[in-house]
Amino acid sequence: MTDNTLLEVEDITVEYVTQGHRFAAISGVTLDIAEGETVGLVGESGCGKSTTARAIIQLPTPTAGKVRFEGQELTELSHAEMRPIRQRLQIIFQDPVSSLNPRRRVKDIIAEPLFISGMKDKAEIDRKVREVLNAVSMDPDITMDRRPHQFSGGQCQRICIARALIMEPKLIVCDEPVSALDVSVQAQILNLLEDMKERYGLTLLFISHDLAVVKNISDRVAVMYLGKFCELADSARIYEAPAHPYTAGLMATFPEIGDKVTNSGPALTGEIPSPLNPPSGCRFRTRCPQAEEKCAAEEPEFREIEPGHLVACHFPLVGE
Amino acid sequence: MADNQSTKPPLLEVNNLYTHFDTPRGIAHAVDGVSFTLERGRTLGIVGESGSGKSVLSRTIIDILAKDGSVLYDGEILFEGRDLRSLPEKEMREIRGREIAMVFQDPMSSLNPVKKIGKQITEVLTKRLGMTKKAANLRAAELIDSVGIPDAEQQLGRFPMHLSGGMRQRVAIAIAMACEPKLLIADEPTTALDVTIQAQILDLLREQQRERNMSVILITHNLGIVSGYTDDVAVMYAGQIVERCATDELVSHPRMPYTEALMNSAPALADPPHTRLNAIPGLPPNLLNVPDGCRFNARCPYVQENCKTEMPTLTADANSDHSFACWHPLQNEMANGGASA
Amino acid sequence: MSPAISLSSESKAREISAIKTSAFSPGIFYRHLCQFHDAQSSAVSILIDSILAFPNIVLAIAILFYAGANIFNLVLVISFYTIPQFTRISRANTMLYAQREFVVAARAQGASHLRIILRELLPNVIVPVAAYSLLIMSFTIGLEGTLSFLGVGLPPPDPTWGQMISDGIEELEDDPFISFVPSFFMFMTILSLNLMGDRMRQFTDVKASSA
User: Fold this and answer.
1) What is the pLDDT of residues C56-115, one digit of tens each?
2) What residues contact residue A265 under an 8 Å CB cut-off, 6+ apart?
3) Which of A253-257, A292-296, B211-215, C32-36 has the lowest mean pLDDT?
4) Which long-range contacts (CB under 8 A, 24 or more apart) does A70-75 make?
5) What is the model's pLDDT at position B152?
6) Residue of chain B with shortest Cα separation from A211
């Protein structure tokens, strides 16, 4: 916990009740994000990455654990008390079209955070909206008076980013912001996020299921599986030397241009278990090529195997 | 590729196919003059982004677009020599599902949510192949097993909603395989699935293809998938095929600037973090109002004057199967007429 | 019979419809407030569903007969039909829109419940509700006609279509037009409202839906 730690997530758990069963979508998630860095969070369905994103912004408040932003504890705040903090802690979502109210004009959508914070000066609001639209490379004169359905997916995402930027936040949680976009548009938006990060001095938590995208934009990467962290390390390190078998498996199965797929079976067999009924001990053991008895009996601890590289595995592939 | 020719005609030959939608705001040129052939036993990848027309193309081949007159067609689709466009609906129905099967992006589209899995497969077997109920049940269990679903017998009694996305897609594939089709069209079959499941499904499709010597059209936006799982590839942009060749060729020596731009804009796992991506500026053209000349001209880094006025046609160099539609194609390193890689 | 009478009763029907429309507002607003409070939402749902299940026509006739057939009672009785219907429509649509990401986005900006209802949900929900209201209006006209025909509608001298039709029944052999003309106008009005409502629904559905 150094001086420039912006966000401290401590041991959060989010539980849901479905069909009468109580289960934990995420448990024991701990993460520190320093000011100015981009942390990537990668995993497949059911791993809890979106749940983590929502828990951080307290929508809803996690069932257990603490979240500290700029030193302030968020989990005990009421909605009204959170309001000023939300100006500095923003989120952008996966489906850009669904994140925009189809009945409102773009200028009102973007100005909404200003209205909520009580700003009344129309000229000032107009100026700020124009400024932020220019920042995301959308022409204000064309864009402001239109409605979301008149724009493409990529343009809508730019509008969402503009909305997130208008209050000049410190941290933006990006929940799969490019997953719903075409490849060529993805690249535009990723470049835009990097540019905005530099211009506004942002800190980002970038969530995605796409390994290459996460590596490209992040300084550090965390890998999640079934609600828990399995690995956390610097971007370059985690890709050149993954310590957790799941991370290694993910990378092996990632389809790359120029890969000739060998005839041997896929690196990871089996289905992702249901979060309602996770395997005992290490959750990944049912699909792990090197699972042993210890893995079923004892849940591995999330520990440091080399400086800056944490993993939750009894038999990590690297380090020790 | 040349030595693969048999004396029989290719399994599928599409000639100058056009599919236009008559919308209140004008005519949308979804598929605008597409031609390609597919031999038996080979996998053709069709790569493109949204609006490229790849999905409309697949739906045109098996004729499942709206039949209310709002869709305008032209050109021919020769399946084993017969023009599918000229067939009456009754005969088309025979072909659909039996000789040409389709797997969709969203497995729930092809599965009936209120029928058990087993019933959905046996129905196909009893109705289309005339099997007895007993034989159909046995065969259904075999099929479920062959697509890698464990406890086949038990799974027959379940409903689609109880299965995961990957499982549902396997069932959809099993249903598609039930009639032993000659051609399988897989329209983004793994886009909605997780990466680790994606690999399993693609491997399954490849296995099925090899076992049955089936032809496959694999439609995707992911060049990585195309690179790993297809023999030949056609790149589509704004309703047209802009490059067509063997997959290895495309990956190593693309000729069409769009293909190169597409490959370069995707982040690569091998690149270091914070590598600036070569994003293609702008947006694909509006299908209601296609520009003159080459449709990629507004976004092409190598654009020249004639690109804006004349539409390039899909042509190949001499002695090559690699066709492209560009006035100023990228230089092929082996451009001095030698054999391709 | 003279179209003049038909037209004036048409204006009566319009009057009734106008009153009706003002009755639906409490329905949708309350719905919204309940949306965020599940327990209350269920309680109101149960109440609404019971009203819907009740044989309203019996209640209608009873009230109009005993409490007198004046315009206030007539509107009250018609409300028993229409408020539950509006409530259900607005509830279904509110639930639909409340799950959309732009509502979560508004929460993430610190918007209060009230702000979300007024600024995010209401502009979206009002559209299908408005389209539906045209259909409800046509239903209301038909209902009023039924009640008048049964003799519990507004007494003369207020002209109503139902009354005219019922008066003309005795004269059907001699002068069928006494019944036919008001029937025809009623039919045309209801048909027009239905068609407009349908069209509006189609039109707004397309615009409101996202990719």
Assistant:
1) 788 888 888 888 878 888 888 888 888 888 888 888 888 888 888 899 999 998 888 889
2) B203
3) C32-36
4) A70/A6, A70/A170
5) 80
6) B269
Residues 210-269 of A with CB under 8 A from B: 211-213, 215-219, 235-236, 239, 249-251, 253-261, 265-269
CB contact under 8 A, A99 and C105: yes
Beta-carbon contacts below 8 Å between A and C: 66
The structure tokens listed for B200 are 């399993």
List, for residues C3-55, the tens digit of each pLDDT value: 433 344 444 444 444 444 444 555 555 555 555 455 556 777 787 777 777 77
Rounded to 5°, the CA angle B325-B328-B334 comes to 90
* Contact assessment for residue A206 and residue A174, using Cβ atoms and an 8 Å cutoff: yes
Sites in chain B below the pLDDT cut of 50: 1-5, 334-341
**Residues 6 or more apart in contact with residue B158 via CB below 8 angstroms:** B116, B117
Set of chain A residues whose Cβ sits within 8 Å of the Cβ of C210: 97-98, 102, 148-149
pLDDT for res B333: 52
Q: Which chain C residues contact residue A163 at CB under 8 A? A: 105
Give the minimum alpha-carbon distance from A246 to chain B in angstroms, rounded to a whole number: 10
**DSSP readout, B80-123?**
TTEEGGGS-HHHHHHHBTTTEEEE-SSHHHHS-TTS-HHHHHHH
DSSP C141-205: HHHHHHHHHTT-SPPTTS--HHHHHHHHHTTTTT-THHHHHHHHHHHHHHHHHHHHHHHHHHHHH
Prior bond of B189 cis (ω within 30°): no
Q: For residue B103, give the nearest of B219, B214, B198, B17 by alpha carbon.
A: B219
Q: Where are the alpha helices (DSSP H) in chain A?
A: 49-56, 79-86, 106-116, 122-135, 140-143, 153-165, 183-200, 211-217, 235-240, 245-253, 293-297
d(CA B26, CA B192): 32
* Minimal Cβ distance to A59: which of C108, C124, C127: C108
Rounded to 5 degrees, φ, ψ at A65 are 100, 175
Query: Structure tokens of A263?
Result: 């005839």
C-alpha span between B221 and A254 (Å, rounded): 15
Residue type for position A263: N
Following CA atoms B258, B261, B262, B265 in sequence, which dihedral angle do they give, to the nearest 10 degrees? Answer: -160
- 8 Å CB contact of B227 and A257: yes
Chains that contact A by 3+ CB pairs under 8 Å?
B, C
DSSP A61: P
Chains in touch with B (3+ beta-carbon pairs under 8 Å) read A
Using alpha carbons, list the distances in angstroms from residue B174 to B121, B153, B163: 8, 14, 14
pTM of the model: 0.83
Residue type, A226: L
Are residues A45 and B263, on separate chains, in Cβ contact within 8 Å?
Answer: no
